[in-house]
Specification:
Length: 57
C-alpha cells in the first residue's frame, strides 16, 4: 500500500519567495522607468549631456 507524501509547513516557500522577489523587482523597475521617463529628468539629463559635450579643452 502506497503512503501519501507528508509535507512540512515550509515546503514550497522558496518558490513563493522567488515569486515575491520577482514581483518586487518588476514593481521597482516600473517605478524607475516612470521616474526616468518624466520630463524633468529628461530635461536634466539632456542639459547635462549638452554641457558635457560643449566643454572646451
Amino acid at each position: 500500500m502506497n503512503k501519501l507524501p507528508t509535507f512540512r509547513e515550509d515546503d514550497g516557500m522558496a518558490t513563493i519567495e522567488y515569486a515575491i522577489a520577482t514581483l518586487a523587482a518588476a514593481a521597482l523597475a516600473a517605478v524607475l522607468y516612470l521616474v526616468i521617463d518624466s520630463e524633468a529628468v529628461r530635461a536634466g539629463l539632456t542639459a547635462l549631456i549638452e554641457r558635457a559635450l560643449s566643454v572646451k579643452f
